[in-house]
Amino acid sequence: MIDYTLLIGISGIVFILVGFIISEFTKIDKDTLSYNLINVVGAFLLSYYAYILVSWPFFILNGIWTIAAIVRIVQIIQKS
Questions:
Q1: What's the number of domains the chain is made of?
Q2: pTM reported for the whole predicted model
Q3: Model confidence over 42-70: pLDDT tens digits?
Q4: Under 8 Å CB-to-CB from 4, ≥6 apart: which residues?
């Protein structure tokens, strides 16, 4: 049987780590829509996962990460 809660958590980790690895080892511009969408998706999935597990510190951390990435996406869209 598939544990969908765990699958959500692992998916969130993959998105966040892909974004981190891209930012650390490539010359990607962090002000791109695609980079920030990776962060939004990953942070949102991890926020949801933390909420399900009732892990409030982890929920707050990833909730703030999600909001910050959304704000950055709005700024990028407004600039273009």
A1: 1
A2: 0.91
A3: 999 999 999 999 999 999 999 999 999 99
A4: none
